[in-house]
Write a structure and sequence with these properties.
Number of helices: 20
Number of domains: 3
CATH class of the largest domain: Alpha Beta
Helix content: 40-55%
Strand order of the largest sheet: 5-13-12-11-10-6-9
Structural class: alpha/beta
Shape: globular
Largest sheet: 7 strands, mixed
Distance between the termini: 36 Å
Bound molecules: pyridoxal-5'-phosphate
Radius of gyration: 28 Å
CATH topology of the largest domain: Aspartate Aminotransferase, domain 2
Strand content: 15-25%
Oligomer: single chain
CATH architecture of the largest domain: 3-Layer(aba) Sandwich
Amino acid sequence: MSVNTALLRKIPKIDDILRQENIEETAQQCSHSILMESIRETLDSLRQRILAGEEDVPVEMADICEEVLRLTAQKNTMSLRPVINATGIILHTNLGRARLSDRAVEAIKSIAQDYNTLEYNLKKGARGSRYDHVEDLISKITGAEDAIVVNNNAAAVMLILSTMAKGREVITSRGELVEIGGAFRVPDIMAQSGGTLVEVGTTNKTHYSDYVNAITPETGALLKVHTSNFKIMGFFEEVTLEEMVEIGHSHNLPVIYDLGSGALVRLQDYGIQDEPNVLDAMKSGVDILSFSGDKLLGGPQAGIIIGKREYIEKMKKNPLTRAFRIDKLTLAALEATLRDYLDPEVALKSIPTLQMMCATKEELLLKGQKLFDLLNQNPQGYTVELTEDYGQIGGGSVPTQMIPSVVIALKTTKLSLDTLEKELRAVSLPIIARISKERMLFDVRTIEERHFSYINETLRKLCMK
Ligand SMILES: *Cc1c(COP(=O)(O)O)cnc(C)c1O
């Protein structure tokens, strides 16, 4: 094979490319190194194609500039960026879990922009504590004596165990030794915290007497873990939180409960079963409770620990608290979110996770009709149908419940659904949708109306190609 040297020689020089009008314009707005990198990558790729014997390699200046501009734009795009969640999974762990309320977003912005009272007490004109901003609020909402917030719930569990069970035994049911989100495993967290796990019962059944019989002078606490992401069907028995509190307290042992998703409203009222809420758990008299900020609570990533003051005070003095400490932006969003819970009606209206979870079928149909009408105006290259399907809560919550939802089902002959799915991920505001029964589904529950016209324009462009 002879190398096409004529074609190789046609590749323009870097200096000539830099003198092109559209490249000069871009050079004004972007870093020189990114532009140069894009030019080099473009030229290298052309050379390699020519050397590999390809015939129709585009070496015209216009083509090259277009590719350079495409690459620079790509390199200048943020890696962490917004997407449209059309999956119908409300707390999608890969898509950032809970979407924040407008108030929480505003709070983040104003705290990020200005100096603030993070650790400053305005009344005293002296040093304050970052934990003061939400402690009272959490106590008011949950009825707990005291509270502390850390980075996430995994850190919360670690801090609890390290404070209350270091060098002691912690009794936990075998049925609750869960793995959550890949890296959070109850036995591993226990080992890291310096406590000794004492497993009782079996995978499917643990009895009252199992806990009682395992108590020794070495026992430091009883731990209950909500098995957030799975459910045992058939023969199953667990000891209730109330019973565990009874056992613990009759032996002078604290009872700890990792709730996982800490719902602060009674989801049963909205047709969502099996997800324990913080308010009911508190009534049991449990000593320490922990839950996530960005699951059913609908706030930022955080771990919230509530319970008896004597234990929380100890946690505040644990050096791990410094390592797990919550940052100011999270704290701002958390305070704003929690404030909404002072009035549950307000919370239901303003917190997106709750709004989406509680949306009625009528509301979803109305919303779906709007998107359908847009897409169905003179459709070209596709057909759409407004129909019903199922979504999920997600985030390791309510694993067995699919929630009925309303979807737009799109069919197209212009490109394969796999290609369409890929193209939808490649647009400026990526749209994450799913394929089912040879249709592309867009679940309207998790899509915001402000994105409808963008979705419409994008689908028209992609399906008309
Ligand atoms: C989700 C979950 C965790 C981990 O919480 P993060 O906030 O993701 O760190 C721990 N325990 C249970 C039971 C959970 O459901």
